Amino acid sequence: MSSKEIHELLHQVGYGHLGCIHEGKPYVMPMSYYLEDSDIYLFTTEGMKTHDIDANPEICLQVEEINDPLHWRSVIVNGRASRLTVQEDIDRAMHLIKERNPTLSPAINRTWIDAQGRSETIAIYRIDASEMSGRTTDGVSSR
Questions:
Q1: Which domain holds residue 10?
Q2: How many domains does the chain have?
Q3: Domain assignment of residue 61, yes or no
Q4: Is residue 127, in this structure, part of any structural domain at all?
Q5: Does the residue 103 lie in any domain?
Q6: What are phi and psi of 57, to 5 degrees?
Q7: Would residue 75 count as lying in a domain?
Q8: Which end of the chain lies in a sparser environment, N or C, as judged by fewer CB atoms within 10 Å?
Q9: Nearest residue to 15 via CA among 35, 38, 45
Q10: For the domain that residue 13 is a member of, what is the CATH number?
Q11: 3-class secondary structure for the chain?
Q12: pLDDT tens across 51-110, in order?
């Protein structure tokens, strides 16, 4: 797939599978993402995912569109996730995220307050892509 086709698929789909390392082993989970120009944002709440990404920010995001076994497209984004800490960056990303997902679900559905009164807090990461590749059923790759 060409770079343009990869970005079109990333813009169109909005969810995929995030791969990271958990306790020294590969771990993959479903994840919504948000694309603005070439920036990819991940929105989640504090937990295992944020712990793992903070410990080892090298990630892989896989996105696919499958119509049937003979008609599909798939994109892999390898890169480094960095947690947004500057309020202006967080506000800009939240605006983008809420445009696409006003309810902030499923991440916000997990928000809770524990016995000590601590609430789960949100975390937003930006992926600095080091490599993007895409394949389609015709076998064309962007590599």
A1: 3-136
A2: 1
A3: yes
A4: yes
A5: yes
A6: -75, 0
A7: yes
A8: C
A9: 35
A10: 2.30.110.10
A11: CCHHHHHHHHHHHCEEEEEEEECCEEEEEEEEEEEECCEEEEEEECCHHHHHHHHCCEEEEEEEEEEECCEEEEEEEEEEEEECCCHHHHHHHHHHHHHHCCCCCCHHHHCCECCCCCECCEEEEEEEEEEEEEEECCCCECC
A12: 999 999 999 999 999 988 888 999 999 999 999 999 899 888 888 877 776 655 555 545
Residue 43 pairs with which residues in a beta bridge? 124
Query: Are 39 and 22 a contacting pair, CB within 8 Å?
Result: no
CA–CA dist 103, 75 (Å, integer): 26
| Per-residue model confidence (pLDDT) at position 45 | 81
Give the CA count within 13 Å in the CB-facing half-sphere of 15. 10
HSE-CB at 54 with a 13 A cutoff on CA atoms is 13
For the record, the structure tokens of 32 come out as 């919504």
